[in-house]
From TrEMBL:
Keyword set, alphabetical order: Cytoplasm, GTP-binding, Magnesium, Metal-binding, Molybdenum cofactor biosynthesis, Nucleotide-binding, Nucleotidyltransferase, Transferase
One Pfam family in the UniProt entry: NTP_transf_3
Protein name: Molybdenum cofactor guanylyltransferase
Chain's gene name: mobA
GO molecular function, one term: nucleotidyltransferase activity
PANTHER family for this protein: MOLYBDENUM COFACTOR GUANYLYLTRANSFERASE
EC number: 2.7.7.77
Quaternary structure annotation from Swiss-Prot or TrEMBL: Monomer.
Catalysed reactions, as listed in the record: Mo-molybdopterin + GTP + H(+) = Mo-molybdopterin guanine dinucleotide + diphosphate
Length: 218
């Protein structure tokens, strides 16, 4: 019996469009954790899992992300309607290059699992969305999206819709779940207290020789 066909390459999309008001403003992915930016840490986790490379969803001057190893994609619709606009940018960019699926992640989640893409691919279907979960929470912006959904997503945004979960529910979502110990792999850093807690978690993971964020079976 022949081995199963390899999954097509996935584009990794890092969402960096938030205003970081609870952090005092600015770009959260450029904050430093353990001497490196969150963006560097997210890219280091996600990049090896994405055969089609990485892209960054961000508005404004792209020069502030100099050194990022991929294109900087502004929102393709006006008025900065939230993370779905960034996801649409990624889907359209991928579709123009023949890439069938995009995995989106938050730009402030430095402990992403090293098996994120593989497990989302295993959970999802060719036409549905697969999203990540940990504990009792689903993470709507950490998900695998077929590029075939881009027209429906554009129409959804043009009608004034903004809710990520409501859009996901339209498209037969599946989920892959990870444990929250020793650290939630989808911990995102919204406040200075979150950043301080992440520093502690990073020190503990380095001291124990664990990278954090692997699946329970890894």
């Amino acid at each position: 019996m022949p081995p199963p066909a390899a999954s097509p390459p996935v584009l990794g999309l890092i969402l960096a469009g938030g205003q970081a008001r609870r952090m005092g403003g600015g770009d959260k992915p450029l904050l430093r954790l353990g001497g490196r930016t969150l963006l560097e840490r997210v890219g280091e986790r996600l990049g090896p899992q994405c055969g089609a490379g990485l892209a960054l969803s961000a508005n404004g001057d792209p020069a502030r992300f100099a050194g990022f190893p991929g294109p900087i994609l502004p929102d393709p619709v006006p008025d900065q309607p939230g993370p779905l606009a960034g996801i649409l940018a990624g889907l359209e960019h991928a579709a123009a290059r023949g890439i069938p699926r995009v995995v989106s992640v938050s730009g402030d989640a430095p402990f992403l699992p090293e098996d994120l893409v593989a497990r989302l691919q295993a959970a999802g279907s060719e036409v549905g969305i697969a999203l990540a979960a940990s504990g009792t929470r689903q993470h709507f912006t950490i998900a695998l999206w077929p590029t075939a959904l881009r027209d429906d997503l554009r129409h959804y945004l043009e009608r004034g819709e903004r809710r990520v979960g409501a859009f996901i529910d339209r498209h037969r979502p599946a989920a892959a779940s990870w444990p929250v110990e020793p650290v939630d792999p989808f911990l995102n850093l919204n406040t200075p207290e979150d950043l301080a807690a992440a520093e502690v978690a990073l020190l503990r993971s380095e001291a124990s020789g664990r990278g954090g964020g692997r699946s329970a079976g890894a």
